[in-house]
Amino acid sequence: MAAAHFNYFTLFPQLPIEIRLQIWQLALEPEAPGRVLFCFKDGCWKPRRLTAADPHFNPVNDEFNLTLEFRHELLDVVDFELVLFSVSREAQSVACQYIESQKLRRSDNAAMCVFVRGYDTARDVLFIPTAAALYGFLSEHLERLWKPDLEDMLVYRPDPSIVRLAITPCGLDSVASHLWDVWELCSLELETLYIVANAPENTEQPSEGQHWEILSAHDAAYVWDASAGQMAWHGEHCIDGPLGELFALMETCAAVLPEKFIEMKIKRAELRAAYMVRR
Predict the structure, then answer these.
(1) What whole-number distance in Å separates Cα of residue 231 and Cα of residue 253?
(2) Cα angle vertex 134, ends 159, 267, to 5°?
(3) Alpha helix ranges (H) inside 168-223
(4) Do you know which InterPro entries this protein is assigned to (predicted)?
(5) Cβ neighbours around 89 below 10 Å, total
(6) What percentage of the chain exceeds 90 in pLDDT?
(7) C-alpha to C-alpha distance for 67 and 173, rounded to whole angstroms
């Protein structure tokens, strides 16, 4: 059997450092991630005493300085694998630029090339995997007010800063008659409600170094047109296609929204069909 022949670029180490770094970057640096999913969990609503640095601080009466906040930093972190970091010292310098740009940090209990980061409301999606979890998301802050440490107290509750939320078709169906509750909790911040067509039964962290991202399905979105006072479809949304039942459910559940959106002065909102993918 003939021996295998491999071609090696033996002159690579002799190239100028600038060119070598550019080659590492083009060859191995990963693309920036898309919309990353962070799974909702109970226990993120926490009380806090306002300080003089807070805009709602009351310097006269401290009884008004108790707040109940949704703490995004309590959500579980997600993994990102960055093979470039372990290739060589030169490649590592390129990887460090990417790590800084994505605000990643080394994982405590993972391989050398696995990094993590927490939820970023500006770019990430909060995922609520079940109808029961959606109920908890909508009610936990109310139930928390009846705990002994907050009962009969004056508590200020700012709206959680959530721009993108993802739920399942079962979750959507469970709030069909009162879907506006999602916007009332998140106030004007919420722009996109994703309906995930393929949510797996187990949505916990995938294999080490992997995470979940969300992709729009056929770019189909049911969009609030504030000027016309109604919802309208954008993108491919064939009712007879494989996502026909989901599109019909979105239309049915969104029927309660226009009146509330006008009342709440919502300017921008959409329901978007989507898929979950492992990265």
Answers:
(1) 11
(2) 45
(3) 169-174, 180-186
(4) 2EXR
(5) 6
(6) 58
(7) 32
Strands 212-225 and 35-39, by their bridges, are antiparallel
**Contact criterion met (CB below 8 Å) for 159 and 236:** no
Smallest CA-to-CA distance from 276 within 203, 222, 221, 208 is with 203
Tokens of 183: 């916007």
What would the two tokens of residue 61 be? 């009466």
Q: For residue 250, what pLDDT band results from cuts at 50, 70 and 90?
A: very high
Burial of 67 (0-12, 13-18, 19+ CB in 10 A): middle
Structure confidence at residue 96 as a pLDDT band (50, 70, 90)? confident
Give the mean pLDDT of 183-190: 85
Q: Is the pLDDT of residue 255 over 50?
A: yes
